[in-house]
Amino acid sequence: xxxxLKVYFKKYKKLRVIYxxxxxxxxxASVLLFGFYLKKSNFKAITRNDLSISSQKYNLQEFGSEELxxxxxxxxxxxxxxxxxxxxxxxxxxxxxxxxCEIERAEIIGNFPVAFDCEGNLILxxxxxxxxxxxxxxxxxxxxxxxxxxxxxxxNRQPAIETACILTNxxxxxxxxxxxxxxxQLEGIEHYQQQTGIKPKLIVNSNLRSWQKDxxxxxxxxxxxxxxxxxxxxxxxxLIVPSFRRxxxxxxxxxxxxxxxxxxxxxxSNLTNIKCDRLFSPKVFISRRKALGRRIINENEVIEALKxxxxxxxxxxxxxxxxxxxxxxxxxxIVAPHGAGLTNLIFADNPIILELFxxxxxxxxxxxxxxxxxxxxxxxxxxxxGEVRQKDGDLVVNITQLRDLLALMGSPMNNEQ
Length: 417
Prior knowledge:
By secondary structure, the protein is of the alpha/beta class. It is about 35% helix and about 20% strand. The chain is built from 14 helices and 18 strands. It starts with a helix and ends in a 9-residue tail after the last helix.
């Protein structure tokens, strides 16, 4: 029934907008009520800081180093639109030294399992990167069914899992979050394996997508290393918990450049043995024509304007994971509307990036590009007439501005490669 509703709303834009507004209002109300319950019940959670303070109890091992990442200047037209200036600007972020730790006799509970220690405390580092207060974070990202089961439910009588790591969460089916928040945790698992000689099983979603399986294989994990989660509650004798690779002041923030570089090196080094006959242009235009939102309404005009400059158009939904990695690894110039496909910038080798924004502006790919030292620019585009969506609104590209900004950024304005 739920899937039928989703298909129905995809067909009718106005109904979808109404549904989204209703859903977000309901979510806000439910989060407030759930947060109130958590405070009244004195629910306990173990934060990253708590793990560090009790490092011996949790056998916490730090690795790598602390980072001070600079997200530098960028190219765009002035005056910079307010919606861009409010999100994208030069900044510096301190990213704490990563760690991996052990939770003895952990209970993992939920359709997207999260961990509780033997005293019933929620381990926050097994939920999601935290962007708000502890209570609000739990209320938004952990189901009330999971919380109640941890407080009143009976333990699962199935045999305990020996040694494992949770590698699934409500965001893990999103290409961006799977890459930067899930796959980067495997550096901690690799460190743990090097120190102990033990390779933990990875607890993953029961219906992994093909690109998730491909990415895990490129990192050295096959199906024998995975536990496809179909339970609601299990005991893990030794749960291995790697830290999220985000900046930590009070809350999680920008991503770790060191983690992205580790991921790039691991995947590209294992990619050399995989055959790919397809040839790619070093000048890349990414189309979102198969997406539900943030599509370029005048895309044909954009393609015709870019073609004489040597650009080829690619639809990432039609490409395998390996093809996407290889496309970005060889690219010299990339033009794309804001979207999860730009996660593949992790695999790029110092290209020029021009990101196209509609009404919604997110800085994740701007900071990924700038943090890795790429030349980055962005172009604010107008919505088509009648567009009411904010986050998923379509856009119309000004062709003259597009060509001028590419020239300003130093992209060769002819078809020479």
